Amino acid sequence: MVGFYGFAAHPPFAPVCFTPQPIMEPQPNDQRLFAQSLNPYANRSIFPTGAVLQADGQWVVSYGLDTEQAAFCTFDHQALLAATVKLAE
Q1: Number of domains forming the structure of the chain
Q2: Is residue 19 included in any domain, yes or no?
Q3: What is the pLDDT of residues 16-50, one digit of tens each?
């Protein structure tokens, strides 16, 4: 599962908020690419690999699924921030 942390814009870049609930979870995959899992320890796993904030306020996130597939998803920046809880200072 994947969560979100927000960090301060200035050093020491301390965490300032987080999502208490996962924002991404691996979905059941009934159409495996390979007969056997390439990594039995990573079954039903998700690996975020990068994120870019676009000018329209959408995050594009690249990720891997079960060490077999690559995918992209998007998140609205304002909706993501609305789902966070602030950390104590």
Answers
A1: 1
A2: yes
A3: 999 999 999 876 656 666 777 777 777 778 889 99
Range of the domain at 15: 5-25+43-86
| The two structure tokens encoding residue 77 | 């920046």
Amino acid at 46: I
Q: What does DSSP assign to residue 6?
A: E
What pLDDT digit, counting tens, does each position of 45-89 carry? 888 999 999 999 999 999 988 777 888 999 999 999 999 999 987
Within a domain: 56: yes
Residues 6+ apart with CB under 8 A from 21: 3, 83
pTM reported for the whole predicted model: 0.78
Q: Residue type at 50? A: G
CA distance 89 to 15: 9
What is the token pair recorded at 30? 């009934």
